[in-house]
Amino acid sequence: MLAPLIKKLERRFAISKADRAALESLEVIVAPIRARNSFILEGDAPDHTHLIHSGFACRYKALADGTRLILSFLIPGDFCDLNAHLLGSVDYSVRTLSDCTIIQIPRGELNSTLLSHPILDRGFRWMSLLDESILREWLISTKCRSAEKQVGHLFCELLMRLQAVGLSQEESYDLPLTQADIGDATGLSTVHVNRMLQRLRGEKLVEFRDKHVNILNLKALTAFSGFNPRYLHLSSELTGT
Amino acid sequence: MLAPLIKKLERRFAISKADRAALESLEVIVAPIRARNSFILEGDAPDHTHLIHSGFACRYKALADGTRLILSFLIPGDFCDLNAHLLGSVDYSVRTLSDCTIIQIPRGELNSTLLSHPILDRGFRWMSLLDESILREWLISTKCRSAEKQVGHLFCELLMRLQAVGLSQEESYDLPLTQADIGDATGLSTVHVNRMLQRLRGEKLVEFRDKHVNILNLKALTAFSGFNPRYLHLSSELTGT
DNA sequence: CGTCGATTTGAAATCTATCAACGATGGTGG
DNA sequence: CCACCATCGTTGATAGATTTCAAATCGACG
Fold first, then answer.
1. Would the Cβ of A194 be found within 7 angstroms of any atom in strand C?
2. Per-residue pLDDT tens digits for B52-65
3. Which of residues 66-85 of A touch B (CB under 8 A)?
4. How many CB atoms lie under 10 A from the CB of residue A219?
5. Is B190 inside a domain boundary?
6. How confident is the model at residue A164 (pLDDT cuts 50, 70, 90)?
Protein backbone atom coordinates (compact mmCIF):
# COMPACT_ATOMS: atom_id res chain seq x y z
CA MET A 1 0.00 0.00 0.00
CA LEU A 2 2.79 2.42 0.85
CA ALA A 3 4.85 1.36 -2.13
CA PRO A 4 5.35 4.79 -3.74
CA LEU A 5 6.40 6.32 -0.46
CA ILE A 6 8.86 3.55 0.29
CA LYS A 7 10.20 3.68 -3.24
CA LYS A 8 10.86 7.37 -2.87
CA LEU A 9 12.60 6.96 0.48
CA GLU A 10 14.70 4.05 -0.70
CA ARG A 11 16.19 6.13 -3.46
CA ARG A 12 17.97 8.10 -0.83
CA PHE A 13 18.03 6.20 2.47
CA ALA A 14 18.90 2.72 3.58
CA ILE A 15 15.49 1.58 4.76
CA SER A 16 15.77 -1.60 6.82
CA LYS A 17 13.27 -4.43 6.84
CA ALA A 18 12.20 -3.26 10.28
CA ASP A 19 11.62 0.28 9.06
CA ARG A 20 9.58 -0.96 6.18
CA ALA A 21 7.59 -3.29 8.39
CA ALA A 22 6.89 -0.46 10.81
CA LEU A 23 5.47 1.64 7.99
CA GLU A 24 3.44 -1.20 6.60
CA SER A 25 1.94 -2.07 9.93
CA LEU A 26 0.46 1.39 10.41
CA GLU A 27 -3.31 1.33 10.74
CA VAL A 28 -4.29 3.39 7.76
CA ILE A 29 -7.57 4.33 6.15
CA VAL A 30 -7.70 4.15 2.38
CA ALA A 31 -10.15 6.50 0.75
CA PRO A 32 -10.95 6.93 -2.93
CA ILE A 33 -11.63 10.56 -3.83
CA ARG A 34 -13.06 11.83 -7.09
CA ALA A 35 -11.32 14.37 -9.26
CA ARG A 36 -11.61 18.11 -8.44
CA ASN A 37 -12.46 17.58 -4.82
CA SER A 38 -10.99 19.75 -2.07
CA PHE A 39 -10.46 17.36 0.78
CA ILE A 40 -8.33 19.62 2.98
CA LEU A 41 -9.27 23.25 3.46
CA GLU A 42 -7.17 26.17 4.62
CA GLY A 43 -7.43 26.34 8.39
CA ASP A 44 -8.14 22.65 8.89
CA ALA A 45 -6.29 20.82 11.63
CA PRO A 46 -6.55 17.22 10.50
CA ASP A 47 -5.75 14.50 13.03
CA HIS A 48 -4.66 12.25 10.19
CA THR A 49 -1.84 12.79 7.79
CA HIS A 50 -2.81 12.39 4.15
CA LEU A 51 -0.61 10.53 1.71
CA ILE A 52 -1.30 10.26 -2.01
CA HIS A 53 -1.42 6.66 -3.11
CA SER A 54 -2.57 7.15 -6.67
CA GLY A 55 -3.63 10.10 -8.81
CA PHE A 56 -2.67 13.74 -8.89
CA ALA A 57 -3.53 16.41 -6.36
CA CYS A 58 -2.31 19.89 -5.54
CA ARG A 59 -1.85 22.30 -2.71
CA TYR A 60 -3.47 25.63 -3.51
CA LYS A 61 -4.71 28.87 -2.09
CA ALA A 62 -7.90 30.55 -3.18
CA LEU A 63 -7.50 34.32 -3.25
CA ALA A 64 -10.10 36.88 -2.37
CA ASP A 65 -10.67 37.74 -6.02
CA GLY A 66 -11.46 34.14 -6.87
CA THR A 67 -8.10 33.30 -8.41
CA ARG A 68 -6.84 29.88 -7.49
CA LEU A 69 -3.12 29.49 -7.25
CA ILE A 70 -1.47 26.09 -7.21
CA LEU A 71 1.46 25.96 -4.78
CA SER A 72 2.63 22.44 -5.55
CA PHE A 73 1.63 19.30 -7.33
CA LEU A 74 1.24 16.18 -5.22
CA ILE A 75 1.96 12.82 -6.82
CA PRO A 76 1.88 9.28 -5.40
CA GLY A 77 4.22 9.03 -2.43
CA ASP A 78 3.75 12.68 -1.45
CA PHE A 79 2.27 13.81 1.84
CA CYS A 80 -0.34 16.55 1.73
CA ASP A 81 0.00 17.89 5.22
CA LEU A 82 2.93 16.21 6.93
CA ASN A 83 3.62 19.11 9.27
CA ALA A 84 0.19 20.53 9.80
CA HIS A 85 0.26 19.58 13.48
CA LEU A 86 3.32 21.73 14.14
CA LEU A 87 1.71 24.89 12.84
CA GLY A 88 -1.65 24.07 14.37
CA SER A 89 -3.47 24.21 11.07
CA VAL A 90 -2.65 24.14 7.39
CA ASP A 91 -2.42 27.47 5.63
CA TYR A 92 -3.36 26.10 2.24
CA SER A 93 -5.99 23.81 0.78
CA VAL A 94 -5.50 20.51 -1.00
CA ARG A 95 -7.59 19.13 -3.81
CA THR A 96 -7.49 16.27 -6.22
CA LEU A 97 -6.86 16.96 -9.88
CA SER A 98 -7.68 13.44 -11.02
CA ASP A 99 -9.41 10.57 -9.27
CA CYS A 100 -7.16 9.64 -6.37
CA THR A 101 -6.81 7.20 -3.57
CA ILE A 102 -5.68 8.86 -0.40
CA ILE A 103 -4.15 7.09 2.56
CA GLN A 104 -4.91 8.55 5.95
CA ILE A 105 -2.44 7.82 8.71
CA PRO A 106 -3.30 8.63 12.32
CA ARG A 107 -1.04 11.39 13.51
CA GLY A 108 -0.20 9.83 16.88
CA GLU A 109 0.62 6.44 15.50
CA LEU A 110 2.87 7.91 12.86
CA ASN A 111 4.66 10.03 15.43
CA SER A 112 5.49 7.09 17.64
CA THR A 113 6.73 5.08 14.66
CA LEU A 114 9.03 7.95 13.74
CA LEU A 115 10.30 8.18 17.31
CA SER A 116 11.44 4.59 17.27
CA HIS A 117 12.78 4.62 13.71
CA PRO A 118 15.31 7.40 13.31
CA ILE A 119 15.97 6.69 9.65
CA LEU A 120 12.32 7.14 8.87
CA ASP A 121 12.20 10.31 10.91
CA ARG A 122 15.13 11.58 8.92
CA GLY A 123 13.48 10.57 5.70
CA PHE A 124 10.27 12.33 6.59
CA ARG A 125 12.10 15.52 7.46
CA TRP A 126 13.94 15.21 4.20
CA MET A 127 10.68 15.01 2.28
CA SER A 128 9.48 18.14 3.97
CA LEU A 129 12.64 19.97 3.00
CA LEU A 130 12.25 18.71 -0.52
CA ASP A 131 8.86 20.39 -0.66
CA GLU A 132 10.51 23.59 0.39
CA SER A 133 13.24 23.23 -2.17
CA ILE A 134 10.71 22.75 -4.95
CA LEU A 135 8.89 25.80 -3.72
CA ARG A 136 12.08 27.84 -4.01
CA GLU A 137 12.57 26.63 -7.54
CA TRP A 138 9.02 27.59 -8.46
CA LEU A 139 9.65 31.02 -7.07
CA ILE A 140 12.66 31.34 -9.30
CA SER A 141 10.67 30.07 -12.24
CA THR A 142 7.92 32.61 -11.98
CA LYS A 143 10.30 35.44 -11.43
CA CYS A 144 13.10 34.75 -13.82
CA ARG A 145 11.91 32.45 -16.57
CA SER A 146 9.83 33.35 -19.59
CA ALA A 147 6.43 31.76 -19.84
CA GLU A 148 7.66 29.21 -22.34
CA LYS A 149 10.62 28.17 -20.22
CA GLN A 150 8.43 27.99 -17.17
CA VAL A 151 6.11 25.49 -18.77
CA GLY A 152 9.06 23.49 -20.09
CA HIS A 153 10.65 23.50 -16.67
CA LEU A 154 7.50 22.16 -15.10
CA PHE A 155 7.42 19.23 -17.50
CA CYS A 156 11.04 18.43 -16.64
CA GLU A 157 10.35 18.52 -12.93
CA LEU A 158 7.34 16.26 -13.21
CA LEU A 159 9.29 13.76 -15.28
CA MET A 160 11.97 13.47 -12.63
CA ARG A 161 9.52 13.23 -9.77
CA LEU A 162 7.39 10.64 -11.50
CA GLN A 163 10.46 8.63 -12.40
CA ALA A 164 11.40 8.54 -8.73
CA VAL A 165 8.20 6.66 -7.94
CA GLY A 166 8.21 4.58 -11.09
CA LEU A 167 5.34 6.33 -12.83
CA SER A 168 6.96 7.34 -16.07
CA GLN A 169 7.78 5.58 -19.28
CA GLU A 170 11.00 6.38 -21.08
CA GLU A 171 10.46 10.06 -21.54
CA SER A 172 6.76 10.37 -21.31
CA TYR A 173 4.12 10.19 -18.62
CA ASP A 174 0.44 10.60 -17.96
CA LEU A 175 -0.51 13.99 -16.64
CA PRO A 176 -4.20 14.38 -15.84
CA LEU A 177 -4.24 18.18 -15.90
CA THR A 178 -6.01 20.73 -18.01
CA GLN A 179 -4.26 23.70 -19.53
CA ALA A 180 -6.08 25.83 -16.99
CA ASP A 181 -4.44 23.81 -14.20
CA ILE A 182 -1.04 24.51 -15.67
CA GLY A 183 -2.02 28.13 -15.79
CA ASP A 184 -2.96 28.09 -12.10
CA ALA A 185 0.40 26.52 -11.29
CA THR A 186 2.56 28.80 -13.40
CA GLY A 187 0.55 31.94 -12.85
CA LEU A 188 -0.11 32.29 -16.57
CA SER A 189 -3.44 32.79 -18.26
CA THR A 190 -4.98 29.74 -19.89
CA VAL A 191 -4.74 31.37 -23.27
CA HIS A 192 -1.06 31.96 -22.88
CA VAL A 193 -0.41 28.44 -21.63
CA ASN A 194 -2.05 27.20 -24.77
CA ARG A 195 0.21 29.28 -26.96
CA MET A 196 3.32 28.20 -25.08
CA LEU A 197 2.35 24.55 -25.47
CA GLN A 198 1.98 25.07 -29.18
CA ARG A 199 5.35 26.71 -29.36
CA LEU A 200 7.07 23.95 -27.40
CA ARG A 201 5.42 21.46 -29.69
CA GLY A 202 6.49 23.36 -32.78
CA GLU A 203 10.07 23.38 -31.52
CA LYS A 204 9.91 19.60 -31.10
CA LEU A 205 10.65 19.83 -27.40
CA VAL A 206 7.50 18.49 -25.70
CA GLU A 207 3.99 17.48 -26.60
CA PHE A 208 1.14 17.62 -24.11
CA ARG A 209 -2.00 16.07 -25.54
CA ASP A 210 -4.80 13.90 -24.25
CA LYS A 211 -3.53 14.11 -20.69
CA HIS A 212 -0.19 12.73 -21.72
CA VAL A 213 3.22 14.39 -21.82
CA ASN A 214 5.65 13.21 -24.42
CA ILE A 215 9.09 14.72 -24.20
CA LEU A 216 10.52 14.74 -27.68
CA ASN A 217 13.99 15.99 -26.87
CA LEU A 218 14.82 15.87 -23.20
CA LYS A 219 18.32 17.22 -23.53
CA ALA A 220 17.19 20.21 -25.53
CA LEU A 221 14.26 20.81 -23.23
CA THR A 222 16.31 20.84 -20.04
CA ALA A 223 18.86 23.13 -21.66
CA PHE A 224 16.19 25.44 -22.98
CA SER A 225 14.25 25.71 -19.74
CA GLY A 226 17.29 25.93 -17.51
CA PHE A 227 16.34 22.81 -15.59
CA ASN A 228 18.90 21.58 -13.10
CA PRO A 229 17.65 18.52 -11.19
CA ARG A 230 19.88 19.25 -8.22
CA TYR A 231 17.09 20.97 -6.33
CA LEU A 232 15.11 17.72 -6.29
CA HIS A 233 17.84 16.07 -4.21
CA LEU A 234 17.03 12.70 -5.70
CA SER A 235 20.48 11.19 -5.75
CA SER A 236 21.34 8.83 -2.93
CA GLU A 237 22.57 10.12 0.38
CA LEU A 238 26.30 10.63 0.38
CA THR A 239 26.90 13.25 3.03
CA GLY A 240 25.02 14.17 6.14
CA THR A 241 25.23 13.96 9.89
CA MET B 1 23.12 37.06 22.91
CA LEU B 2 20.28 34.91 21.65
CA ALA B 3 17.69 37.47 22.66
CA PRO B 4 15.95 37.90 19.28
CA LEU B 5 15.66 34.16 18.82
CA ILE B 6 14.25 33.64 22.29
CA LYS B 7 11.88 36.54 21.85
CA LYS B 8 10.55 35.02 18.69
CA LEU B 9 10.09 31.60 20.25
CA GLU B 10 8.44 32.98 23.36
CA ARG B 11 5.74 34.60 21.31
CA ARG B 12 4.47 31.18 20.53
CA PHE B 13 5.87 28.64 22.96
CA ALA B 14 6.17 28.35 26.70
CA ILE B 15 9.94 28.42 27.00
CA SER B 16 11.04 27.31 30.46
CA LYS B 17 14.00 28.68 32.37
CA ALA B 18 15.80 25.42 31.64
CA ASP B 19 15.17 25.73 27.91
CA ARG B 20 16.44 29.26 27.89
CA ALA B 21 19.48 28.32 29.92
CA ALA B 22 20.23 25.47 27.54
CA LEU B 23 20.19 27.86 24.61
CA GLU B 24 22.27 30.43 26.40
CA SER B 25 24.91 27.93 27.40
CA LEU B 26 25.63 26.92 23.83
CA GLU B 27 29.23 27.55 22.86
CA VAL B 28 28.74 29.98 20.04
CA ILE B 29 31.04 32.04 17.87
CA VAL B 30 30.03 35.61 17.25
CA ALA B 31 31.25 37.08 13.98
CA PRO B 32 30.76 40.59 12.62
CA ILE B 33 30.27 40.60 8.85
CA ARG B 34 30.30 43.63 6.61
CA ALA B 35 27.44 44.50 4.31
CA ARG B 36 27.12 42.77 0.91
CA ASN B 37 29.17 39.78 1.86
CA SER B 38 28.18 36.25 0.82
CA PHE B 39 29.13 34.10 3.77
CA ILE B 40 27.34 30.92 2.73
CA LEU B 41 27.53 29.70 -0.84
CA GLU B 42 25.30 27.28 -2.71
CA GLY B 43 26.67 23.80 -2.20
CA ASP B 44 28.31 24.52 1.14
CA ALA B 45 27.84 22.03 3.95
CA PRO B 46 28.54 24.15 7.02
CA ASP B 47 29.17 22.34 10.30
CA HIS B 48 27.83 25.35 12.15
CA THR B 49 24.35 26.73 11.99
CA HIS B 50 24.21 30.47 11.36
CA LEU B 51 21.84 32.70 13.26
CA ILE B 52 21.37 36.40 12.55
CA HIS B 53 21.95 38.47 15.66
CA SER B 54 21.79 41.92 14.14
CA GLY B 55 21.45 43.34 10.67
CA PHE B 56 19.72 42.17 7.52
CA ALA B 57 20.72 39.30 5.28
CA CYS B 58 19.06 37.27 2.55
CA ARG B 59 18.97 33.85 0.99
CA TYR B 60 19.46 34.08 -2.74
CA LYS B 61 20.33 32.19 -5.86
CA ALA B 62 22.58 33.55 -8.56
CA LEU B 63 21.36 32.51 -11.97
CA ALA B 64 23.42 31.60 -14.97
CA ASP B 65 22.66 34.92 -16.65
CA GLY B 66 23.94 36.87 -13.67
CA THR B 67 20.56 37.72 -12.22
CA ARG B 68 20.41 37.47 -8.47
CA LEU B 69 17.14 36.41 -6.99
CA ILE B 70 16.38 36.89 -3.32
CA LEU B 71 14.46 33.95 -1.85
CA SER B 72 13.92 35.36 1.62
CA PHE B 73 14.99 38.12 3.91
CA LEU B 74 16.70 37.13 7.13
CA ILE B 75 16.31 39.35 10.16
CA PRO B 76 17.61 39.04 13.72
CA GLY B 77 16.45 35.78 15.25
CA ASP B 78 16.36 33.98 11.90
CA PHE B 79 18.47 30.97 11.06
CA CYS B 80 20.24 30.96 7.71
CA ASP B 81 20.69 27.24 7.25
CA LEU B 82 18.92 25.41 10.02
CA ASN B 83 18.31 22.28 7.97
CA ALA B 84 21.34 22.19 5.74
CA HIS B 85 22.64 19.02 7.39
CA LEU B 86 19.53 17.08 6.42
CA LEU B 87 19.92 17.75 2.72
CA GLY B 88 23.68 17.43 2.82
CA SER B 89 24.30 20.92 1.50
CA VAL B 90 22.41 24.15 1.08
CA ASP B 91 20.90 24.82 -2.33
CA TYR B 92 21.04 28.58 -2.00
CA SER B 93 23.54 31.22 -0.93
CA VAL B 94 23.27 33.66 1.94
CA ARG B 95 24.67 37.18 2.07
CA THR B 96 24.43 40.19 4.28
CA LEU B 97 22.56 43.24 3.09
CA SER B 98 23.73 45.48 5.91
CA ASP B 99 26.52 45.07 8.42
CA CYS B 100 25.57 42.09 10.53
CA THR B 101 26.66 40.06 13.45
CA ILE B 102 26.23 36.37 12.87
CA ILE B 103 26.14 33.74 15.57
CA GLN B 104 27.57 30.37 14.67
CA ILE B 105 26.32 27.41 16.62
CA PRO B 106 28.05 24.04 16.33
CA ARG B 107 25.70 21.63 14.66
CA GLY B 108 26.33 18.72 17.03
CA GLU B 109 25.92 20.72 20.17
CA LEU B 110 22.69 22.22 18.94
CA ASN B 111 21.34 18.81 18.02
CA SER B 112 21.94 17.37 21.44
CA THR B 113 20.34 20.39 23.08
CA LEU B 114 17.27 19.89 20.93
CA LEU B 115 17.15 16.20 21.79
CA SER B 116 16.92 16.95 25.49
CA HIS B 117 14.57 19.93 25.14
CA PRO B 118 11.48 18.91 23.22
CA ILE B 119 9.90 22.34 23.35
CA LEU B 120 12.92 23.84 21.68
CA ASP B 121 12.95 21.08 19.10
CA ARG B 122 9.34 21.86 18.40
CA GLY B 123 10.10 25.56 18.20
CA PHE B 124 12.92 25.03 15.77
CA ARG B 125 10.80 22.89 13.53
CA TRP B 126 8.15 25.54 13.69
CA MET B 127 10.63 28.17 12.53
CA SER B 128 11.55 26.04 9.59
CA LEU B 129 7.91 25.64 8.63
CA LEU B 130 7.48 29.36 8.98
CA ASP B 131 10.17 29.87 6.38
CA GLU B 132 8.26 27.60 4.10
CA SER B 133 5.04 29.40 4.73
CA ILE B 134 6.61 32.73 3.88
CA LEU B 135 7.99 31.21 0.72
CA ARG B 136 4.50 30.13 -0.28
CA GLU B 137 3.22 33.63 0.27
CA TRP B 138 6.00 35.08 -1.87
CA LEU B 139 5.07 32.68 -4.59
CA ILE B 140 1.53 33.96 -4.44
CA SER B 141 2.77 37.53 -4.46
CA THR B 142 4.83 37.23 -7.59
CA LYS B 143 2.18 35.33 -9.41
CA CYS B 144 -1.01 37.05 -8.43
CA ARG B 145 -0.26 40.52 -7.19
CA SER B 146 0.52 43.59 -9.25
CA ALA B 147 3.94 45.14 -8.80
CA GLU B 148 2.54 47.83 -6.55
CA LYS B 149 0.70 45.41 -4.30
CA GLN B 150 3.73 43.18 -4.16
CA VAL B 151 5.91 45.94 -2.80
CA GLY B 152 3.22 46.97 -0.36
CA HIS B 153 2.82 43.40 0.79
CA LEU B 154 6.53 43.10 1.42
CA PHE B 155 6.48 46.16 3.67
CA CYS B 156 3.59 44.67 5.65
CA GLU B 157 5.37 41.38 6.09
CA LEU B 158 8.56 43.01 7.28
CA LEU B 159 6.68 45.15 9.75
CA MET B 160 5.10 42.10 11.36
CA ARG B 161 8.30 40.11 11.42
CA LEU B 162 10.31 42.95 12.88
CA GLN B 163 7.64 43.59 15.48
CA ALA B 164 7.95 39.97 16.57
CA VAL B 165 11.57 40.57 17.54
CA GLY B 166 11.03 44.06 18.86
CA LEU B 167 12.74 45.89 16.03
CA SER B 168 10.00 48.21 14.92
CA GLN B 169 8.59 51.46 16.19
CA GLU B 170 4.88 52.08 16.03
CA GLU B 171 4.41 51.64 12.32
CA SER B 172 7.83 52.26 11.01
CA TYR B 173 11.16 50.49 10.94
CA ASP B 174 14.69 50.70 9.63
CA LEU B 175 15.23 48.79 6.44
CA PRO B 176 18.81 48.85 5.16
CA LEU B 177 17.96 47.87 1.57
CA THR B 178 18.38 49.58 -1.74
CA GLN B 179 15.64 49.73 -4.31
CA ALA B 180 17.64 47.24 -6.32
CA ASP B 181 17.45 44.79 -3.41
CA ILE B 182 13.70 45.13 -3.36
CA GLY B 183 13.78 44.48 -7.07
CA ASP B 184 15.80 41.31 -6.58
CA ALA B 185 13.31 40.15 -3.98
CA THR B 186 10.16 40.93 -5.89
CA GLY B 187 11.52 40.08 -9.32
CA LEU B 188 10.84 43.61 -10.56
CA SER B 189 13.28 45.89 -12.32
CA THR B 190 14.87 48.60 -10.24
CA VAL B 191 13.22 51.24 -12.33
CA HIS B 192 9.81 49.79 -11.77
CA VAL B 193 10.38 49.43 -8.03
CA ASN B 194 11.18 53.09 -7.97
CA ARG B 195 7.93 53.99 -9.68
CA MET B 196 5.90 51.75 -7.40
CA LEU B 197 7.47 53.36 -4.33
CA GLN B 198 6.52 56.74 -5.67
CA ARG B 199 2.99 55.62 -6.28
CA LEU B 200 2.64 54.12 -2.80
CA ARG B 201 3.98 57.35 -1.38
CA GLY B 202 1.58 59.41 -3.48
CA GLU B 203 -1.33 57.33 -2.22
CA LYS B 204 -0.24 58.04 1.35
CA LEU B 205 0.23 54.34 2.09
CA VAL B 206 3.97 53.94 2.77
CA GLU B 207 7.14 55.93 2.52
CA PHE B 208 10.51 54.30 2.06
CA ARG B 209 13.29 56.85 2.29
CA ASP B 210 16.77 56.93 3.76
CA LYS B 211 16.68 53.25 4.64
CA HIS B 212 13.59 53.76 6.71
CA VAL B 213 10.05 52.54 6.13
CA ASN B 214 7.23 54.65 7.43
CA ILE B 215 3.79 53.16 7.05
CA LEU B 216 1.37 56.03 6.76
CA ASN B 217 -1.84 54.06 6.76
CA LEU B 218 -1.41 50.47 7.84
CA LYS B 219 -5.04 49.54 7.53
CA ALA B 220 -5.29 50.86 4.00
CA LEU B 221 -1.98 49.30 3.05
CA THR B 222 -2.89 45.82 4.25
CA ALA B 223 -6.25 46.05 2.51
CA PHE B 224 -4.69 47.31 -0.68
CA SER B 225 -1.96 44.72 -0.85
CA GLY B 226 -4.11 41.82 0.28
CA PHE B 227 -1.95 41.16 3.30
CA ASN B 228 -3.25 38.57 5.72
CA PRO B 229 -0.82 37.97 8.59
CA ARG B 230 -2.13 34.46 9.16
CA TYR B 231 0.68 32.92 7.14
CA LEU B 232 3.23 34.28 9.60
CA HIS B 233 1.73 32.13 12.37
CA LEU B 234 2.77 34.65 14.98
CA SER B 235 -0.09 34.30 17.40
CA SER B 236 0.54 32.13 20.42
CA GLU B 237 0.12 28.41 20.25
CA LEU B 238 -3.44 27.41 20.90
CA THR B 239 -3.83 24.11 19.17
CA GLY B 240 -1.37 21.39 18.33
CA THR B 241 -0.36 17.93 19.32
C1' DC C 1 -28.96 16.35 -31.00
C1' DG C 2 -27.63 19.71 -27.60
C1' DT C 3 -24.65 20.86 -23.98
C1' DC C 4 -20.71 21.45 -21.42
C1' DG C 5 -15.88 21.74 -20.71
C1' DA C 6 -11.55 22.19 -22.89
C1' DT C 7 -8.78 23.93 -26.51
C1' DT C 8 -7.77 27.21 -30.04
C1' DT C 9 -7.55 31.72 -32.49
C1' DG C 10 -7.48 36.83 -33.09
C1' DA C 11 -7.18 41.63 -31.67
C1' DA C 12 -6.59 45.09 -28.37
C1' DA C 13 -5.17 46.69 -23.89
C1' DT C 14 -1.97 46.69 -20.02
C1' DC C 15 1.83 45.94 -17.46
C1' DT C 16 6.65 45.69 -16.89
C1' DA C 17 11.33 45.55 -18.81
C1' DT C 18 14.86 47.77 -21.16
C1' DC C 19 17.69 51.50 -22.60
C1' DA C 20 19.60 55.86 -21.83
C1' DA C 21 20.50 59.70 -19.37
C1' DC C 22 20.73 62.86 -15.39
C1' DG C 23 21.08 64.53 -10.55
C1' DA C 24 22.35 63.78 -5.93
C1' DT C 25 25.22 61.85 -2.59
C1' DG C 26 29.16 60.29 -0.16
C1' DG C 27 33.68 58.73 0.00
C1' DT C 28 38.51 58.90 -1.68
C1' DG C 29 42.75 60.57 -2.99
C1' DG C 30 45.48 64.25 -4.63
C1' DC D 1 39.64 71.85 -0.32
C1' DC D 2 38.59 70.16 -4.66
C1' DA D 3 38.20 66.78 -8.39
C1' DC D 4 36.89 62.35 -9.19
C1' DC D 5 34.41 58.16 -8.88
C1' DA D 6 30.90 54.92 -7.61
C1' DT D 7 26.38 54.05 -6.00
C1' DC D 8 21.78 55.18 -5.68
C1' DG D 9 17.57 57.28 -6.94
C1' DT D 10 14.93 59.49 -10.57
C1' DT D 11 12.84 60.45 -15.20
C1' DG D 12 11.40 59.73 -20.09
C1' DA D 13 10.69 57.02 -24.17
C1' DT D 14 10.23 52.68 -26.35
C1' DA D 15 9.76 47.70 -26.88
C1' DG D 16 8.14 43.28 -25.52
C1' DA D 17 5.62 40.01 -22.97
C1' DT D 18 1.37 38.64 -21.17
C1' DT D 19 -3.50 39.54 -20.08
C1' DT D 20 -8.04 40.26 -21.25
C1' DC D 21 -12.04 39.96 -24.04
C1' DA D 22 -14.61 37.67 -27.49
C1' DA D 23 -15.66 34.06 -30.31
C1' DA D 24 -15.00 29.71 -32.92
C1' DT D 25 -13.97 24.83 -32.78
C1' DC D 26 -13.80 20.32 -30.98
C1' DG D 27 -14.89 16.24 -28.37
C1' DA D 28 -17.24 13.64 -24.88
C1' DC D 29 -21.40 12.40 -23.08
C1' DG D 30 -26.23 12.24 -21.62
1. yes
2. 999 999 999 988 77
3. 67, 69, 71, 83, 85
4. 8
5. yes
6. very high
